[in-house]
Amino acid sequence: MTYVELHCHSAYSFLDGASQPEELAARAAELGYEALALTDHDSVCGSLEFAHAAKTFDVRPITGVWHDLPSILFLGIPVIATVIYCLHVLVSPLAAFHDRNAAALHAVFRVVYYGLIGGYLALAVKHRDDTPGLIDTAIALLVTGVLIVWQERRGTKAARLPLLLLTVVGVPEVAYLAALLPGGDLRVGAWIFTAGWILGVLAEMQTLAAAPIIAHSG
User: Fold this and answer.
1) Domain definitions of the chain by residue range
2) pTM exceeds cut of 0.85
3) With bands split at pLDDT 50, 70 and 90, how would you rate the model's confidence at 15?
């Protein structure tokens, strides 16, 4: 078994890498590597160039992307919330656990929501190319903010928790939908996820709509 470098940046990682993709492939061949991974920051711009060069030098190309911590957190947290929601719906013992600890979980995910929307607004202000713009993020804030306000005082915290989880998921969902929809860049998987999110939100809203409005929920 030979060594394979799985963390390598090219000149496409500005202020980090210096070598062109073909130079990396040539050097890998000189060192006797059977494969090499190109993992530029938030970009696969050099992947095609790297693949052609790697073929020339008989090196197996591995393409990846190196995300920074904010990108991982702002996309990873909603993924975790999605998993928790699905388990809540499908696994009865977990739903019972959520009911027993509803107050604490509700408080935690409210903090997560506000932190997430604040993070997306901060990235939008910085005008990063790989994140939704200010208008897209404002649309996400409007949609999810309406959900946050609407669910207040409807039923107990246990009853509101599923919709709160979907509201957390809605931050990147709505922001990226607003960013990608005008250019027709949404793929089939994105449409399926969007449809699932909308159906989930409508189902939870229907459930909460039947719950009494109370001043202080448990």
Assistant:
1) 1-66, 69-209
2) no
3) low
